[in-house]
Amino acid sequence: MKREINRRDLFKLGIASAAVLAAGKAIGSSALAGTVDFVEGGRDFSPKTGAERKMIPSACWSCVTRDSMIGFVEDGRLVKLEGQPNSIRGKGKICAKGAAGINQLYDPDRILYPMKRAGKRGEGKWKRISWDEALTDLAGRLKKLRDEGHPEKFMFHYGRMKASSDKIVKGTFLSAYGTKTIGNHTSICEGAKWVGQELTWGKHYDNWDFDNTKMVVNFGSNCLEAHTNSIPVSQRLISAIVDRGVKLYTFDVRISNTAAKSTEWVPVKPGTDRAVVLAMCKVIMDAGLYDKDFFKFIKATKNRKASTDEKAAVLKAHLDKYSPEWAEKISGVPAAKIKSIALELAKTKPACVISYRGAVAHHHGADTERAIQMLAAITGNIDNPGGRCRAVGAKWKYPKGPKAPKTAGLKILDGFKGDIAYPNHHANHQVLKMIKDGKAGRPEIYMWYCYTPVYSHGEIQENIDILKDENLIPFTVNVNAYYDESAALADLILPNPSYLEWWDWEDMASPTQTPEYYIRQPFVKPLGESRDFKDVVCELADRMGFPLGFNSAEEFVKMSCEMTPDVKKAGGFEYMKKHGVWHDPNAKPKYYMYKKEVKTEDLKKDGVIFDEATGVYWNWKEAHAESEAEAKEKGYTKTKNAYKGYVGQEIDGKVYAGFKPDKVNKSGYFELYSELLEMKNLPAIPSFTPVPAYEKMGPDDLILTSYKVAVHIHSRSANCKWLTEISHDNPAKINTMTAKRLGIKSRDKIKIKSEIGEIITTADVTEGVVPGVVSISHHLGHWEYGRYASGKKAPFAGDNDPDLKLKTWSTHGVHPNWIMANKPDPISGQWAMLDNVVKVTKV
Amino acid sequence: MHEQLSISRRQVLKGAGAAALTGAATLMPTGKAIAVRGEAPRWAFIVDLRRCIGCRACTVACKAEFDVPLGAFRAAVYEEVVGTFPDSEKIFLPRLCNHCEGNKDDKVPPCVKGCPEYPKDRREFVTDDGKKIRYRGGATFKRPDGLILFDNSLCTGCGKCIEACPYGARNFDKLLISGKDSTKNGITKCTFCEHRIAKGVTPSCINICPGRARFFGDLNDPASEVSKLNKQFGLTENPNETTLLPGENTTPMCFYIDPQGALKKMVVAKKKFEKNDAILDVI
After folding, report:
1. Where are the alpha helices (DSSP H) in A188-347?
2. In chain B, which residues have their Cβ closer than 8 Å to the Cβ of A16?
3. Alpha-carbon distance B162 to B149, whole Å?
4. What are phi and psi of A55, to 5 degrees?
5. Cα angle for residues B190, B194, B195 (degrees, 5° grid)
6. How far apart are CA A138 and CA A134, in angstroms?
7. What does each C-alpha distance from A570 to A389, A394, A627 come to in angstroms?
8. How close, in Å, is residue B49 to chain A by CA atoms?
9. Pair A173, A151: CB distance under 8 Å
10. Does A736 touch chain B (CB under 8 A)?
11. What is the C-alpha to C-alpha distance for residues B9 and B17, in angstroms, rounded to an integer?
């Protein structure tokens, strides 16, 4: 639907943000005097006694946004969490998930002791053991593999591990151990988006400059509820809409909260966003409204030296078949709507094109992101104020650890050979399948951290069967604070504290394009016998004879504060402990980084050569090529890891920083024509390819889709009572017309069947979902994870929470992952989670 | 400490007391806004429905602020999908205690009127320049600055205040024993974060709101944000458009900026909470 925002609605409120931090600062006259100057946060008082509480600055870790945050402690207990008023990213705000961090800390079902399984794997029988016993066992097993020259047989699989946590565990410990069998989670999130970016502008992360934009077009992002930089951008987006009348068009299969606040929610059939985007590109190119200046930096043809007119002609010819009328047939979006939004986008300067999982978690999702990059590029909205910008975050310096005697990795991270062209971020949803298959080898020790191999991606039953099989994986270790479905299949559990008990330095992207440095520090000492895994790896390394050079995460953070010039100048570790956050008030926002010219002396450095075919200057030594001769012979594109030596891009006689490549040997152009894709027989210029699963749909089949809600975090918040109280069921949402056709009413029990299996769940009939779709939220359906999540008490859990008796809900949801196939996007390896076709019947 | 007050209980119930306490506003010509001298503030809360993104940060912040037990909410957000696809829309309605001024006849809010343990004592409210305003207290009561508060030490856990509130803003607190009857629970309700505003810090739900959709301030102060918004959007002038259940004649002090007419479109906005039904935030 469309909503007009008329001039009367526009009112720039000019809110006085009298942000005052920390105790010691006088407030002024009492509020009861009616003064306007209420302080926004920064101080906290007990509702019972009025006593002021102690403030500690830290950082959230509920989601990857990792907002700066402050917390208040009373009598040794964390009682409140709020945003950090002095953060340029969060500006004093956190979300419901962040505020509920207290539930993560005081979860009555938390794992507080090292545990060893007592019965068969998965039987649920446990024995408490000491840390010494746990680490003696674990270090012994790890050392044996390493000494035998098989470090690769130790697999470490993390879901979330960033900043200093990543540098300590992966960069130092695992690197010194020597294993490269390290799995992550990215393919179940937005791997396609990153690969799409790596094939166009280089290193991923796009910051959306809402503070300066005049229009936003959104494909599949729900950033007002869940986003990788959620609070920093959501507040800026709603402010842009209300204070400046910025229009937001959201293409989505359902009314997410972002669609709800949009100028217009444009319903679109799942997996067809690319058709709409290509048609919009055609409209803009045909109307001649493309940004000719930016075309200088675009590669649109095999011959890089084409003129702007030649490039435009090639794109026009390529886009010719993608008419709005054609796109309407595929996507359901009216042609007139496609045209009008495209023209408005081209004429509104600057504008921001945003996208996320809804658009890219599909077959060829990476090409959808490339098409969206194309739309932003041809309208000149790349790396400009108000546009889609290369992200800027803090750059910390930190200690480096020892080198491993041997480094090796099992080739089980990137799916089956030949399936994926550029698995730059792996295909972690295929790891268990690869282990089962065995041809690329199997780990002897499989350890996972902030990750749940059973539950976080599709085909849950197969995941359980593989993880349970001791013949496939001899030893399983989970580092966790919570007894989840995967912990239940571990042989050894090491109790990690919640993030509210950790040390870290942090570096997430800043929406202002100027970096912010911040740290995480404990509000309380780790509960029970839990120990920060970052400290544990220090001890493991000691036990195995390769000390890391620091003894704890706190020490690592302290050293990093002293080693990072800007932070040291601000006051180092003591400053960061007191204030939590620092930014340079004189820093200039980074835009148009690609236009910077490379200094002549940098082109003359030892090892730098020029590649005629691509126009790239690169350093064959830094790329670790065999020799200059071989590097020249193979050329930039075909030399392994050549991108690591990238120096600059030659364009029309000048050498620019350009769009520096990452992960793949892309040139420094903004590549709309990708030789790398052409080499793999994939469309060189963004193209439409139908989702294979949809092509086989019968007239009664529906498309199964999934989404996130504002109050939950992936699979790891259902234990938070304040969040689960709000959202404890995930019924299957179906459009009224579709439901009527199937004879289904709200609250009916329905069976949803895919090629993988079936689930029984409850229907919720709504006008808020596109017809032909069944939409189920992602987070719920636990059968472990504690009493709030599933009704099941964790082993050794206490009853230290009076709310346990007041739990009002007995539904815990049904997870759609049971029936979603683990198919990878052939371009990026992205889990095509939104491509599943199902039959829905009333039970 | 409490001086004898000449206003009788009957007069209070008829509104005479309340009128004498609040009085009329006079303008203060100053850059930094301070209270009208000798007067209590007239607190008001504004929710800007254009800015609410339905994120529930307010709901959880309030839970954390008071450690509200499961099953009860002092603040909650409702959401509804209205209209027919493809022209359907989703609307959010944050709600909390309205700290009503009471009906136009006796100016006593329904919950205070319904409480058998009111009035029970005499209390004193001190303005910024030291003037003392006396008022009646009880298990629940309305303070001269407008806050409707509760005093568990006087509460018998009868639940009549919960039944009396048409907004479902009050609920039993299952982890609180009522002061006067150990077999009953006390209640929980929004206090406009009285303990925070007393120290010059914004209410918790306002502090956390990423949409910056919530405002709190003194309508007696023309320079306050709420006064400016009131003027801009005609909030106090048009309670039929800007408050919940205007027909209940409660005179809410919680106003909604609602240019899209969401309050008219939502079923739940028109719901009158009866018996022990109270607000819930469940998606």
Report:
1. 191-198, 230-244, 257-260, 273-286, 292-295, 308-319, 324-331, 335-347
2. 225
3. 13
4. -95, 135
5. 120
6. 6
7. 28, 14, 44
8. 10
9. no
10. yes
11. 9
Q: Facing residues of B149 across strands?
A: B141
How far does the CA of residue B215 sit from the closest CA of chain A (Å)?
A: 10
Give the pLDDT confidence of A418-474 residue by residue, as tens digits: 999 999 999 999 999 999 999 999 999 999 999 999 999 999 999 999 999 999 999
**What's the pLDDT tens digit per position in A328-359?**
999 999 999 999 999 999 999 999 999 999 99
Smallest CA–CA distance from B33 into chain A, residue? A35
Which of A75, A736, A767, A788 should we substitute to test contact with B (largest number of B Cβ atoms within 10 Å)?
A767
Beta-bridge mates of residue A775: A705, A733
The two counts, helices (H) then strands (E), for chain A are 28, 31
Contact A156, A449 (CB under 8 A): yes
Average pLDDT, chain A: 95
CA distance B182 to B157: 9
User: Torsions phi, psi of A766, nearest 5?
Assistant: -150, 155
Of A37, A725, A736, the CB nearest to B70: A725
CA atoms within 13 A on the CB side of A778: 25
How many CB atoms within 10 Å of residue B245? Answer: 17
Query: How many residues are present in chain B?
Result: 283
Chain A partners within 8 Å of B88 (Cβ): 1, 255, 767-768
Identify the bridge partners of residue A182 per DSSP, sorted by sequence position.
A156
Distance CA A143, CA A163 (A): 27
Angle between helices A553-563 and A533-544 (to 10 degrees): 100
What single-letter DSSP state applies at residue A174?
I
Dihedral sign (CA A592, A340, A371, A194):
positive
ipTM: 0.94
pTM: 0.93
Is the CB of residue A19 less than 8 Å away from at least one CB of chain B? no
Residues of chain B short of pLDDT 50, as ranges, are 1-36
Q: Across the interface, do B53 and A225 touch by the CB < 8 Å criterion?
A: yes
In chain B, DSSP finds a helix count (H) and a strand count (E) of 10, 11
Q: From residue A444, how far is each of A122, A183, A291, A650, B247 by CA, in Å?
A: 18, 15, 55, 49, 71
In degrees rounded to 5, what are phi and psi of residue A248? -125, 120
Alpha helices in A348-476 (DSSP H): 357-360, 365-378, 431-437, 460-468
* Buried-state track A491-512, b at ≥16 Cβ within 10 A, e below 16: bbbbbbbbbbbbbbbbbbbbbb
Residue A834: name the closest of A807, A811, A812, A816 by CA.
A816
* Residue-wise pLDDT tens digits, A603-652: 999 999 999 999 999 999 999 999 999 999 999 999 999 999 999 999 99
CA distance linking residue B139 with residue B118, whole number of Å = 6
pLDDT the model gives residue A48? 95
pLDDT score of B30: 30
H/E element holding B160? Answer: helix B160-164
Flag whether pLDDT at A746 surpasses 90.
yes
Q: Residue B130: its chain A contacts at CB < 8 A?
A: none
Among the listed ranges A54-58, A596-600, A839-843, B11-15, which one has the minimum average pLDDT value?
B11-15
Closest CA to A166 of A187, A182, A150: A182
pLDDT of residue A18: 33
Phi, psi (5° rounding) for residue A462?
A: -65, -40
Give the per-residue pLDDT at B39: 85
Q: Which residues of A583-594 are buried (b: 16+ CB within 10 A; e: fewer)?
A: beeebeebbebb
Q: How far apart are CA B243 and CA B265, in angstroms?
A: 14
pLDDT digits (tens, 9 = 90+) for A534-572: 999 999 999 999 999 999 999 999 999 999 999 999 999
